[in-house]
Amino acid sequence: MTLYRPTTETVAAVTRAGRPVCAFLHDLDALRRQARSLTAPLPPGASFLYAVKANSDPHVLRALEPCVSGFEVASAGEVLRVREAVGPEARIVMGGPARTEEDMRVILAHGVERLHVESPHALHLANAAAARAGVTLPILLRVNLAGPVPGATLTMGGAATQFGIEQAAIPDAIALARDCRSLRLDGFHFHTVSNNRDAIGHAALCAAELALARSLAAEHGVDLHVVNLGGGWGVDYADPDWRFDVAAFARALRPHLDAGGPALQFECGRIVAAYHAAYLCEVLDVKRSHGRAFALLRGGTHHFRLPSSWAHDHPFSILPREAWTHPWTRPELTDTTVTLAGELCTPKDVLARDVPVRRIRVGDLVRFEMAGAYGWDISHHDFLRHAHPERLFLDQGHVARA
Questions:
Q1: Using an 8 Å Cβ cutoff, are 76 and 102 in contact?
Q2: Which one-letter DSSP state was computed for residue 342?
Q3: What is the mean pLDDT of residues 313-321?
Q4: What is the pLDDT of residues 31-78, one digit of tens each?
Q5: Which residues are the active-site ones (predicted)?
Q6: Measuring CA to CA, which residue among 376, 380, 298, 385 is closest to residue 343?
Q7: Long-range contacts from 320-329, C-beta under 8 angstroms, 24+ separation
Q8: What single DSSP character describes residue 332?
Q9: Which residues on neighbouring strands pair with residue 184, listed in sequence order?
Q10: What pLDDT is attached to residue 191?
Q11: In the structure, what pLDDT confidence band is assigned to residue 258 with cuts at 50, 70 and 90?
C-alpha cells in the first residue's frame, strides 16, 4: 500500500496561480487500489461497505463504488449524498444513534437495505414509518457489549456510551422487535471500537461478537441472516508507512466461520480514505514568541480538524519553493522545533506542535499526508469566513474540482 505524497511540481500544475496555496489533493486511482487491497483477503461472501462519514465527497463515492459492496451511512443527508453521487442501485445500510421520523421517511423512500437500530424508541419509530408505507423494513439490533473490550483509539461499546443497546437489554429488544410487525429482525450489529491497530486482537473481538450473535439467535429464536462486525481497522498517524494487516485479520477470523453461517458485513471508512489525499498549505509567516517558533499557514483546523480532534501532531513534509519576489529578506527558521499553526484567531488552531525542522520559509509549502479521512468533512469550514481550500481529484491523468 502506498501513501500519496504529491510533489511541488504537481501542486503547481493543478492549483490556481496568483493566490497562496491551500488545497486538498486526492489520488483517486490509488484510492481504488487501496479499497481493492482491503477487500481481497476477506472471506468469500463477506460484504465490505464504505463508511461515508470518513469522506463523503461525490468524487470519492463514485471512485469507490465499483470497489466496495456498498455504503454505510449515518444520516438522511448521507443517504441522499450516496444516491445523488452513485445512483439508485448502490447498496446502503444505515446506523447511528438519535434517529428521527425524517430519517425513517428517507430510508424508505430511497431503498436503504437495512437499518441498524440502537434503542427501543427507534424500534417504535421504524415500525410506525414502515407500517405507514405498507412495507417491511429489515433491521439489525446494535449491541453494546458488556465488556471489557480491547483498547483502541475510540471505544463505542463495552462501556457506558450513547451507542447501541446494552447487552443485558438485548433479549427485551428482540421481544419488542418481534412485536413490531412491519420490521424484520435479520441479526445483530457490532461497532465496538475504532482505529484498532492490533489485527489479531481485532479478529478475536470479531470472533467473540460473532459467537455472541449466534448464541443470542439460538436462545431467542432469531433467524440469523446477517452479522455486521463494524469497522475499526486501524491507521497509525505517528507512522504513516505502517499498515493494518488485513490478511492476518482474515486468517485469524476464518476458523470461526462456517459454510452455513450468517452473512458477514464490515463497514470501514478511515482505512479506506486516509492514505490517498494530502492537505497543502502555504507558509504565510514565521515568528518566535516566548522561546518557541511558529509557522503560520494559509489554512488550519477549519479545513482539517483531525489533528485537533485527536490531539496529535499530524505527519507532514516541507516542500521548498525558491521563488521570492519581495524586496525584503525572506523570513525563515532553521534547525529548530516549530509549531504549525493556522490562520484562525484561536490558539487551538494547531496542526503539529514543536516538531523538528531543518528549514522552513515564508512561501514554502507544508504537505500534510494521510489527509483523506475525517478532515474536511468534520471541520468548521466557515469560522472567520476564510476562503475554502481548493479540493482537487486526480483521476487517470485528469483533474476534477469539488
A1: yes
A2: -
A3: 97
A4: 999 999 999 999 998 999 999 999 999 999 999 999 999 999 999 999
A5: 345
A6: 298
A7: 320/8, 320/359, 320/361, 320/364, 321/8, 321/363, 321/364, 321/365, 323/363, 324/363
A8: E
A9: 138
A10: 87
A11: confident
Res 24 pLDDT > 80: yes
Buried b (16+ CB within 10 A) or exposed e, 348-382: ebbbbbebebeebbbbbbbbbbbbbbbbbbebeee
345 is catalytic: yes
Q: Where are the domains of the chain?
A: 8-24+275-401, 91-268
pLDDT confidence bin for 192, thresholds 50/70/90: confident
Distance, CA of 363 to CA of 321 (rounded, Å): 7
Q: Is the pLDDT of residue 158 over 60?
A: no
| Amino acid present at 245 | D
φ/ψ of residue 59, rounded to 5: -60, -40
Comparing CA positions, the residue from 374, 339, 340, 351 lying closest to residue 301 is 351
Cα(86)–Cα(61) distance, integer angstroms: 7
Burial of 229 (0-12, 13-18, 19+ CB in 10 A): buried
The reported pLDDT for the residue numbered 39 is 97
Task: Select which of 22, 180, 206, 345 is catalytic.
Answer: 345
3-state secondary structure of 270: helix
Residue with cell 480491547: 150
- Give the tens place of pLDDT for each residue, 115-149: 999 999 999 999 999 999 999 999 999 999 887 66
Q: What element of type H or E holds 289?
A: strand 277-289
Residue type, 233: W
Class of the 8-24+275-401 domain?
mainly beta
DSSP state of 109: H
Whether cis (ω within 30° of 0) applies to the bond prior to 347 is: no
Cβ atoms of 153 and 374 closer than 8 Å: no
Measure the CA–CA gap between 5 and 315, rounded to whole angstroms. 11
Question: Which residues lie below 8 Å from residue 140, measured CB to CB, with a gap of 6+?
Answer: 114, 115, 116, 117, 185, 186, 187, 188, 189, 226, 228
Per-residue pLDDT, 153: 54
Residue 209 is predicted with a pLDDT of 95
Taking alpha carbons only, the member of 262, 318, 40 closest to residue 140 is 262
Fold of 91-268: TIM Barrel (3.20.20)
